Structures
1.
Amino acid sequence: MNIPDSMDDVFYYTNRDIGESGEVIVVVLKKKCPKCGTRMEKPKSKTGKPLRTATEYNCPNCGNSIKKKEYEDSLTAQVRYTCPNCGNSEDTEIPFIRKKVKGALSLVVTCSKCSEKMHVTKKFKALKK
Ligand SMILES: [Zn+2]
Ligand SMILES: [Zn+2]
């Protein structure tokens, strides 16, 4: 797993305890411009904050732009997990696609040994029972 030096490169990061003994770390790096390799960003407002309402990501170097959905659907999550069921510990990469599970947006990580599913939900939002 490659933990970036700067949070500027990070699109999403989380470190979650799963059950009693499990843990999942997820790092998603921002996508690079397919044309020139520069990190793509959301357009910024006049105050320098990323625009939440932006519908595309821009390359600050060459001006290339990618639609928000296309950009976010093609991100890759680097995952390091310890399975709460069998104790297997592994690094893997999965598409960063989150699905609604029991009312919470979750990234589902599956243990390669025992097929246990670990749900990485948004912070502070517990799964509904
Ligand atoms: Zn570019
Ligand atoms: Zn397992």
2.
Amino acid sequence: MATIVEPPTLPPSYTPNTSNTPNGTSSPSPPSNPYAAARAALDRDGFVVLPASLFPTFDLPTLRSAATTLTTSARTGSWPYIRTLPKQFPPWPSDPSSGIWGVQHLMHPSNPSHATFARSYFDAELLRYVAALIGCTEEDLTMELYNMLVRPDAAFSLRWHRDDIPPEATDEEELARLAKPGWHAQWNLALYDDASLVVVPGSHKRARTATERAADPYEANMPGQMVVELKAGEVAFYNNNILHRGVYDPERERMTLHGSIGTTLGSAERARNVLQHGVGEWAKEYDFEDFDEGMRERAKKMREALVEMGRKSGDIGYYSKDE
Ligand SMILES: O=C(O)CCC(=O)C(=O)O
């Protein structure tokens, strides 16, 4: 069983974020520490937005500069790890000629700025939130994915989906999967203001309604939908099985770091979702030598847990190979 982390002390600047709850109100008796409050919001709504002030060590100018350089390499064909138009799910080809909407493997050792991205991924405060949101200890965390979602080169959107439940699933299959713990936390850290992610709050706890099932996959007005609006520096954690989509504006800069971290408690559940992105192929080579000591130890441990997950799971296949 997961161990719930002990309540930590309150960061001085914390004010619980309630502006992004579906009805704009806080719960009747919010938990008294920020980590528990974040988890309660995530459990209730399927997503939670955390203010930039909680993560003072995120260096936005440095991250933006590294993100811009890597995105240029990706658009011009010298960074092969990309999400290409018009494909929604992995695997993606390495040819950017039809345009891209994402840049993969920010921490790949061949990226000259890999350490800049890794410092935000292994940030001590971020990891505290991740452990609290998963419901495990920091000792149990597993390195997973760190990618970036960028302005597409042409008009593009993702269909409504749950990351780990196919659209053909019956009500019973949906409910059975949703009843299981997710064993990971997934987040978007916006380097520029971003309003691309659209969710149906609360849909992570129930099967799709008849309307949702019958809706066009690209339905522009799903009942109850909400745009998750992020200011630069804000972090949205969301349940990856919430009903959601991405709606992108090719005219508006987007560089949003898109991460996930898992736990050794749930590695079998998570293996396909993570390893289908190809991270297992390079994580073994990661040395973290230019990190400070505390971060290096955390990172090494989390990397070992990922390598072990790959070793145990063998060939894992893809969620939706041709789409
Ligand atoms: O663009 C986003 O923020 C959502 C991305 C998404 O839904 C996905 O990668 O499955």
